[in-house]
Amino acid sequence: MKGKKRVDLILLFVTFMLVGIGIVMVYSTSAIIANERFGDPFYFLKRQAFFAGVGFLLMFLFMFFPYELFKRLAYPIFLLSLLLLILVLIPGIGYRAGGSMRWIRLGGYSFQPSELAKLGLVIFLAYLLTKKEEKIRSFFFGFLPVVLFSGLLIGLIMKEPDFGTALFLIIIVFLLLFISGARVIYLVSAFLIAIPLVYAFLMSAEYRYKRWIGFIRPWEDPTGSSFQIIQSFLSFGSGGLFGQGLGEGRQKLFFLPAPHTDFIFSIIGEELGLIGAMAVLLLFFILTFRGIQIALSLQERFACYLALGVTLMISLQSIINMGVVLGLLPTKGLTLPFISYGGTSLVANLMGMGILLHLSSHVERR
User: Fold this and answer.
1) 307 and 294 in contact (C-beta within 8 Å)?
2) Is residue 172 within 8 Å of residue 157, measured between CB atoms?
3) Could you give the CA distance from residue 298 to residue 309 in angstroms, rounded to a whole number?
């Protein structure tokens, strides 16, 4: 007897919890900065709440959007992603901040095309891997087209430059190729070819080189290239088991750079302690587990790849972000999904969750 089909309520609950924690922590980490910069302690909170509302609206729309239509829209979505990534590189359309051309401004808001391109690439890869299913073990007719299409989009992201996002997407492409059955020899060969290219790119800019040295030997330059990661250590370590208390963290008081974006997990550890940090980690673990479970339960290949892609997009970024905060990985500039401040990232991830929740309704339950 077939079971009733419905969305995964646990996954829905986890999503609301993560966004809720994010809104609270964005206010806690940004109030001082917002008041100093804009004269309004609620500046970042209001913007994050607005984008959360937009994101949830799109999430619910995507929950009822037939996933089969993404097959027909795969190429238009991919081309739109490329177009946005090209536009952001054009002076006057894209604008530079922190040495990178990553944002397009619309009115009083700005958005980051690379965040939307992540989801666009996941949808396109699911389509392409399904289409190439019978040929994926062929280098010229299966493996190479996937690498070339992905490389085109990733190359534009590196042009901004946004090395962290580019490397993150390369990992997703490799994982999906491996899961789809691509020959290991092709993957290993591509990896070996990529090593000198990544090294050359790493050495091509002084700030990237300093980040790498700061990761390997953080205590050699505590006031320079290692300043951010050392402040992160101090923040996370001072929280102990139960934390300093919500809003009571000190490292966000102009000591730790980017406390409301890339390093928000440090403040979670400081204010909510190891218990709070582990609770956030548990929520991401549940999301990852349920996402993989949904993907493996789907009979249709495109749906399976789509569910896996969305799950990897969110879970892998959360692992990388936490790894950076704890000093296990070099600084990448990737935010913590749902929790860090960032409108485009939040909206894109909630759209992805809408797709995953829709796919969960196609899993038969008894």
Assistant:
1) yes
2) no
3) 13
Q: Are 15 and 353 in contact (CB under 8 A)?
A: yes
Pairwise CA distance, residues 270 & 194, whole Å: 38
Distance CA 322, CA 318 (A): 6
- Which residues partner with 110 through β-bridges? 105
- Alpha-carbon gap, residue 269 to 232, rounded angstroms: 10
Interior CA angle at 165 toward 162 and 171, to 5°? 135
**Dist. CA 143–CA 135, nearest whole Å:** 8
Q: Which amino acid is at 108?
A: G
The one-letter code for the residue type at 325 is V
pTM exceeding the 0.85 threshold for the entire prediction: yes
| Of the candidates 233, 277, 240, the residue with the CA atom closest to the CA atom of residue 255 | 233
DSSP 200-269: HHHHTSHHHHHHHHHHHSGGGSTTTTTHHHHHHHHHHHHTTTT-S-TT--STTTTTSSSTTTTTHHHHHH
pLDDT in tens, 201-220: 777 777 777 777 778 877 77
The first and second tokens of residue 346, run together, are 């939040």
Question: Where is average pLDDT lowest: 114-123, 129-138, 293-302, 337-346?
Answer: 129-138
Residues in a beta bridge with 105: 110
